[in-house]
Amino acid sequence: MSMTRLLAALGLFMLTLNACSAPEKAPDHFIKGTVEGIQNGKDGYTAKIKTEDNETYFVTVSTANLSDPTQYKAVEIGSVIEVQGDEWTMGEDKQITVRQMK
What we know:
The protein is an alpha+beta fold. It contains one helix and five strands, in the order αβββββ. Strands 1-2-3-5-4 form a five-stranded mixed β-barrel. This is DUF5666 domain-containing protein. Keywords: Signal.
């Protein structure tokens, strides 16, 4: 393999590694926010929530991802929810795969 191809392959590999951040371990605290939008999915929903600190999160709630599926709650715009889970980013958006709900 020529040096140019090797460097190109290495560059693509590094770019792929940095494309998305890996999920972080679930935080020890719950994030509380007001629901501003809801996108329904197959077995749950993704809600856009805004915290009191004016931070926005997109939280994905599904019975399959909850540590206790009986915690599943349907929400409406304006509802206040508390969630805990795996935090990650997609572009500039903060995401949480919910593992626990209050």
